[in-house]
Amino acid sequence: MITSRRHFLKGLGGACLALPLLESLAGAQQTVPTRMAHFYVPIGVVRRGFFPGEENDIIPEGNLGNLMHSLGKQSPYFSAAKLEDLTPTLEPLESVKDKVTLITGMDRTFQDGTDVHAQCACCYLSSAAPYSIGESAWPLDRTLDHIVADEVGRKTPFRTLEFGCNPHQDNKESIYFDNISWYGTGHLAPSIRHPATMYRRLFSDQLSHRFNEVTDLVLEDARAMKKQLGRADQVKFEEYFESIRMIEQQMTRLESMRSTLALGDLTEPPEAYMPRGAFIRLMGDLMVVALQTGLTHVATFMVGPERWDTPTMFDGLFDKPRSHHGMSHDQTRQIDDLLKVDRFHMEQFAYLVQKMDQIKEHDGSSLLDHTLFTYGSGLGDGSTHQYNDLPIVVAGSGGGRMRTGLHVHLPEGTPLANLWLTQARAMGLKIDRFADSQGEIGSILTG
């Protein structure tokens, strides 16, 4: 039966697939929703590879911690220009640079007394002013994703979804190092860290894990429904099912690899040898499907934890697992390798941006056009632990509310919360302030 609401296909055992919004199934009044997602990268970046104008900075030998304010400072003045020549770390965005905006110059304020890495992660989407939260050692309040979901998540199956790409079990750090989503002070919104677990949460009930492929269970219903669709929607329908099938196949391969590695005699945990890019992209594919089908309109995606010394296998970069955190504290000797890691993370972000741009909505626009997808880190530089000049890239226009294709450099001291306020309002919230914000970033708004 044709319906204007999101359609679900169900198969034996309760397995189900949510369909993207198809023109043939959408009522005349149906509008394309705006989504918000955050792609968090730990431990900052190597500034000379990321920030325009800092390519020639030379990092001397010595105590890098004392150089926090002597290196890597952008101009203190406002500027906005077309995003043209990309720095080495940003080059993976070349094909979609007209759909992204680089925002530099935003700062956060560190609250003394807590670990610099933990605070930069757990307080990233909170941005509460230092010492404003009396019952906590952390300036940690309800995070942006949940505040936005209070408004836009009322009718979605999941108000928010939290994705984590840290499957390691040898956790020596606290939860504050490995989570950016919080219901409120001291109340963690735990992330799901395994593709199979997230897949079951999105598409299955407690019985469907007995079956290998959810798509097999719903094909009969799908074939009957397909007859109701127009030609363009039939193509989208086939593309969607093929994407789900590819997710299942990739998940099967990774799970098989994990099982094989667990039987080996390894010095590190099996997870250290998993192909990192494939893992991140698979989790990212699941996030995109959830946004595409309206299972949620708000998601957070944490690429890795802060200050975890567990080594990771970065696909094709190194011949053995490496510790990102350990490398960051030896930047003078390992800067070339760190630059490779930064670019690797940007490649994963670019993959998801491109994927979202290729998914068409029923009105002819793309999923990316109706999303605010933000790449960012809580540190401006992982070696100096600086909280100023944070690396931020926003992809998508949020349904035409945001300008794209720009490099916007904000005046020194502009709070990161100004961006969160701007995004919250673009998502439909009528709020005067967010955390320590001082106002919207008008230069990225279309009107």
CATH A-level architecture: 3-Layer(aba) Sandwich
Number of helices: 10
**Low-confidence residue ranges:** 1-5, 59-71
**CATH topology type:** Alkaline Phosphatase, subunit A
Tell me what portion of residues adopts beta-strand conformation. Answer: 5-15%
What does this entry look like structurally?
This protein has 447 residues and is α/β, with parallel strands linked by helices. It has a single domain (33-51, 68-204, 273-444), classed as Alkaline Phosphatase, subunit A (3-Layer(aba) Sandwich), CATH 3.40.720. It is built from ten helices and twelve strands. Strands 4-12-5-11-10-3-9-6 form an eight-stranded mixed β-sheet, with helices on both faces. The chain has a two-stranded antiparallel sheet with strand order 1-2. The protein has a two-stranded antiparallel ribbon with strand order 7-8. A hairpin with a 5-residue loop joins strand 1 and strand 2 (16-18). The longest helix has 32 residues, at 231-262. The radius of gyration is 22 Å and the shape is globular. 49% of the residues are buried. Mean pLDDT is 85; it is low at 1-5 and 59-71.
